[in-house]
Design brief:
flat
Length: 69
């Protein structure tokens, strides 16, 4: 379970350059036709579907301080 209550205000007020990214590992959906509950995916900049994708984003961000489009 992921708790986004604390990271969102902290990112907004104190660390705007920090990333909030997730790794989607649970195949269950909150709503029919939806991958994730909106309370989870709305605050996140990106949601990786596998570890390789997550590591690629992190490596790119570490090197260039921008997200891959």
């Amino acid at each position: 379970m992921l708790n986004l209550v604390l990271p969102i205000p902290n990112k907004t007020t104190q660390h705007p350059t920090k990333l909030l990214i997730g790794l989607h590992t649970d195949v269950r959906a909150a709503f029919i036709g939806s991958k994730l509950n909106p309370m989870i995916f709305v605050p996140l900049e990106r949601i990786a579907t596998n570890e390789d994708e997550l590591l690629q984003w992190l490596k790119h961000y570490w090197n260039f301080q921008t997200l891959i489009n």
